[in-house]
Request: fold
Amino acid sequence: MAILKTALIASAIATTFTLSGNALAASKNTSGEHQVSEAPLVSIKTHDAFFDAIKSHCGKAYAGKITVDNSDGGGFAGKELIMHVRICDDRQLQVPFHVGDDASRTWLITKTGSGLQLKHDHRHQDGSSDKSTMYGGHTVDAGWAEVQSFPADQYSKELFVELGIPQSNGNTWQMFIYPETFTYRLIRQGREFRVDFDLTKPVTPPAAPWGYKD
Reply:
């Protein structure tokens, strides 16, 4: 009888270890540890078309002009405005926006798998980040192949409050891409700023923006 009990206990222990081992193996197989290819970066047609339209200008730069500005000019008035579609891959576009000799601004347009994200990378001349940087927003709908809107995200809203400009919490940035024109537009209640760039006349690309290198 004692021998039978011992055999049953040993069998139960062996079964437990076997089940535990199988569970661990199953866990490994579903954890992605043995993934042999990257998961796809999903995107919808209108976002792809918008992204690809800008990407088609990669390496080129264009001059722009302010067409709407209901403030005091914000330091843009009278200065040469150049956008440069500088770095492009399947996931992100890096588009510096030069204002005269000021090369502190780079627009980052990124596919996230849930849409498109626009961020403003602001740097000092030594390459360090400005305290007002990486603000922007994310698409909340399909938009159009020619137009996408980016309402301010939560990071941006909290940053604007910290910087003492809570009115910017209502910001929506828009970009328009047509065969002859690219437009950058900022709107909120009581505020509109718009720059139109002529895509029919490429200009000499400027040097790398602050914080980046050629």
Q: What stands out?
A: Helices lie at 2-30, 45-55, 154-162. Residues 2-30 form the longest helix (29 residues). Residues 1-21, 23-28 have pLDDT under 50 and may be disordered.
